Amino acid sequence: MYYLKTEVGFDAAHFLKNYNGKCHNLHGHRWRVIATAKSKELLCDKQKEGMVMDFSDLKKALKEVTDRFDHSLIYEKDSLKNETVKALLSEDFKLVEVDFRTTAENFSKYFFDELKKYGFDMHQIEVYETPNNCAMYSE
């Protein structure tokens, strides 16, 4: 099996509603996302001969998927009061609502599934909230 790995980063804030600890409070991270695609065989066409794929194709897709979250407040649906969302939007803040709790574990599965939609045969996604804390998803 051949593997190809690329990484991107983005800055965003989040919080964990109903969490008993510091992460209950709004806080930010320099999120680091590492995507690993796989292939049993290398390509044979002239341009990409000997490659799993062009690195730039995987990196471009990963950047598109993560750019949605860059410099935003990511929040789980129904975790903020409607008045709070309206107030933040009236201040022109970038908000991104998701259907899952905003943990690194859930983000790893989300990014994995999003990259599969691009047609990549994904092996694993790693999501770092901090330089030392990482969650991974693979099938």
Please, could you describe this protein's structure?
This protein has 139 residues and is an alpha/beta fold. It has a single domain, classed as Tetrahydropterin Synthase, Chain A (2-Layer Sandwich), CATH 3.30.479.10. It has three helices and six strands; from the N terminus they run ββαβαβαββ. A six-stranded mixed beta sheet has the order 4-3-1-2-5-6, with helices on both faces. A hairpin with a 2-residue loop joins strand 5 (122-130) and strand 6. The longest helix is centred in the C-terminal third of the chain and has 14 residues, at 104-117. The model has no long low-confidence stretch (mean pLDDT 96).
Key traits:
alpha/beta, Tetrahydropterin Synthase, Chain A, six-stranded mixed sheet
Write the layout of secondary structure elements.
Layout: E1 2-14, E2 27-39, H1 55-67, E3 72-76, H2 82-90, E4 95-98, H3 104-117, E5 122-130, E6 133-137
Parallel strand pairs: 1-3, 3-4
Antiparallel strand pairs: 1-2, 2-5, 5-6
Catalytic activity: 7,8-dihydroneopterin 3'-triphosphate + H2O = 6-carboxy-5,6,7,8-tetrahydropterin + triphosphate + acetaldehyde + 2 H(+)
Active site: 23, 71, 129
GO biological process, one term: tRNA queuosine(34) biosynthetic process
